[in-house]
Amino acid sequence: MVVPELKAWRAARPHVERFARAVRPGLVRAVEAVRQWLVRSLGAMRLRIARLTTVQFTAGAALLGLALATTVVTAAGPWDSSGQRTAERDLAASREGAGGADHGTGSVTPPKAPRPAPSAPSVLAGLGRTTGSVSSPGEKALADVLGPLLDDPSLGSERTAAVVDVATGKRLYGRASDEALTPASTTKIATAVAALSAAGADHRIATRTVLEPGTKELVLVGGGDPTLTAHEKANGNASLRTLADETARALKSRKLDAVTLSYDTTLYDGPALHPIGPNNPNIAPVTALMTDEGRLDDSSSGTADRSTDPAADAARQFAALLNDRGIKTKSPGPSKATGRAEPLAKVESPPLSALVERMLTNSDNDIAEALARQTALASGEQASFEGGSTAIRTQLKKLELPLEGVKFADGSGLDRADRLTADLLTALLAKAGAPDHPELRPALTGLPVAGFTGTLRNRYSGQPGTGVVRAKTGTLTGVHTLAGTVVDTEGRLLAFAFLTSSTRPTDPAATQKALDSAASALANCGCGA
């Protein structure tokens, strides 16, 4: 008996086959790329597995599965800026008479792009929901576990700590938890929550071109996107090349092949230099227009030599791109677009949720200061260091978070004038995990995973916190901090914050190891009341 093909399948089969051919090479490369890593990871985990409980093992396995799946689907790309794989976009286009990723709107991303999918909120929320019958760790039990670890002399002369049950928001342990210390980069957790609250997880930052009426003045208008890229491969970021493509087409349609190019950075106020000073590899001058965070190499994270005038450099790059597309320009200079200027083209950043996750994972100072200014703009403040600091505080006050003794001087934590408490950091993390604040979830899903990602990739070797602790690090000379979440042996999701400071610099490696040991102790703790 021969079963005939269904009519619907006969019509769809060519498209399905084309889709399979498009993604197969990427999947093969992805599987081969992760095979050896997976073997090494499983071998390493075998040494630790005896110390994990069933709940922690399940959580760790889920995390490893997520990491594997993420690697596979990323390599199976390429991905376009709206979050679709190119093959998926092509398939959708072949099945529909209209639509797809390019609507011809003059934007690199569709105006109503799909809502960004958070990295792992279901895992975090599930852990919180399934622990209703599990007792919270007791204060005395936690004190017995954490006390000796926090007395480690390598932590310096001052140390504060707090542990909170994320499901209830209740503080379970505190050690000078209301004392404000320099937080270093854990400040970024506050910046993340404030930006998500003020501007929204779906907000995108636009970079545009406009033409002044009655003139041939073209203005490149910065919107404050530090991830705008001039590289040939945009990797999901807004592309200066795409903006040049669309601007050149718009000019040619108006019979223009020569313009005077200006650039507008007036969205931001105040000084561009961070108080730490010029020529710092940790951050570029903070301006509304820049490409690739002002980096002078091909890096996308970590320290790097930076441009001293990122806006002017971006304008020069744009002029060269226009020239390659048949549009001649005069030397660019600063200007301000008028309200009468005619819009020509626009590109947009990834959604704020993605920027927040990238900022937290890589401890990205440029994104942090940009998000502080986006928070200021959404809050009606000036987009400056001072305005951003005021706006962050305003947004956290609206969320009814503990702010006594707290001071914000910037959005990145590079400024030593910042002061945060362990109570505030744990309250921020608990608020981000609250069921009634799903818009804040990227403040959790962006946290580095111990032993796997971001600034924790090379830490936690041989410790039970590997794969179970997610935390933001903070480091300045004499200052070391760690704040994040951990699943204990009974499946309870805990938020913790440890801040240390010393007038006499400590050994960074020893201090970080002591902080990691404290977080690992929480992961290894069966401290139910």
Automatic annotation (TrEMBL):
Stretches for region Disordered: 77-137, 293-312, 325-346
Keyword GTP-binding: no
Record-linked SUPFAM superfamilies: beta-lactamase/transpeptidase-like (SSF56601)
Gene3D superfamilies: DD-peptidase/beta-lactamase superfamily (3.40.710.10)
UniProt KW keywords: Carboxypeptidase, Hydrolase, Membrane, Protease, Transmembrane, Transmembrane helix
Membrane spanning stretches: 55-79
Highest taxon listed in the record's lineage: Bacteria
Keyword hit for Transmembrane helix: yes
GO molecular function, one term: carboxypeptidase activity
InterPro entries to which the protein is assigned, alphabetical: Beta-lactam/transpept-like, Peptidase_S13
Membership in a protein family: Belongs to the peptidase S13 family.
UniProt protein name: D-alanyl-D-alanine carboxypeptidase/D-alanyl-D-alanine-endopeptidase
Organism: Streptomyces vastus
Taxonomic lineage from the root: Bacteria, Bacillati, Actinomycetota, Actinomycetes, Kitasatosporales
Primary gene name: dacB
